[in-house]
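User: Fold this, then the next.

Assistant: Folding the first:
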Amino acid sequence: MEKKRICYLVSSLCNEGPVNVMYNIIKNIDFLKFEVSIITFVPEKETTRMHDFSKLPISIYQLSKNKFLNPISLYLRLKDTVNEIEPNVLHAHCPRSLYLMAFLPKKFIKIFTIHNYPNEFQIVLYGKIKGEIVIFDDGINAKYGVDLQGFDFVKIRAERGGKMHHKFCVIDNQTVITGSYNWSDNAEYKNDENISIQADPQQATKYSVEFRNLRTQTKK
């Protein structure tokens, strides 16, 4: 019988509640039936349980061993790694992995274990990662776009009859990510694209104003 592949997503393997719960789940799993992997997102702390997890018959993928990555780079590495593993099930164990997992292809079964209720502490710790989204309401996004259920998003049409051709992201009104890259599979794997990450609050403010203008457009 072919083994089912389960991939656990978690920020790191530091000695905290969610990681300890995950360790007990994996330690008691039937490895004759399941092939287990873990993907982590940030560098390990001194309190890491990496040594304990390494003793188990599993694969561990560290997307960032030495430094913190920006959200776009982190997501792209995550997507490549998940496509390499081809798991039957993705199981997220922290807010960061939940947010990023939502944008992965729909073919994967996605599970999230809630270890604590998101409140002011989570906002201080992680920031308002979820944010807001504006997308162009066309057939391509309807057929090939990511599943945005649960996110604060709006669909709009271009005011002048063409396409809403913006491709940018504003993070904390401090950083702008923009360029020809339109955050699609074609852009990532087939096209020649460019992307610029600008840590410029003044520029970010200008893009934030444009974003607000887009959100208030009436769907035509």
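Now the next one, as you asked:
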Amino acid sequence: MLMPILPGLVKPRCGATVVAAAIVLLSVVGTAGADWTKVSNSGAGADDFTGYVDTATIERSGDLAKMADLRDYRQAQVLKASGKTYFSKRVSVEYHCKEEKMRWLELVHYAAAMGKGEVVHRDDKPRQWISVNSGTVAETRWKIACGQKKLRTAVAASNLSEAVLLFLIWVAGRGGRKRWPTLSMCFSKNTK
């Protein structure tokens, strides 16, 4: 989080300037959304889907890990309870890394592909733990969430936003005083 850095670095009269610059930066960089990485194809048929994971959502605590996955269907799917159609569903999954188990924490169905469009159904009731079977897509996801399998992914939007903002702070405070005098006057010379 950037806030602990800013109080000693930003001069009091310039708080609004820095906040405005941060809002513009985050709105431009932050529109990238989730960083979905393809991990599977289900095959042919009416319920054929491509599976993705978002490694930026991985949270680990002890033997537990959480990660979001997305199923993007090629044809419209129908919810049995309501009859509404959807083209994708996002699932927040919790994994037990030591016991090789998993459970769904939240399930969201979307009217459009890739987790876009109207939310047609949301279920945030955690499911029961189930075993992760060897050789399945679930095992691949479990390995990714628990850190046993590495994926090459782009930088997550939130990390990129923070990195760019820190760079701008550095440029304005160190090397960019002549180029950006308006922004650089907002930063203290002593950044310790």
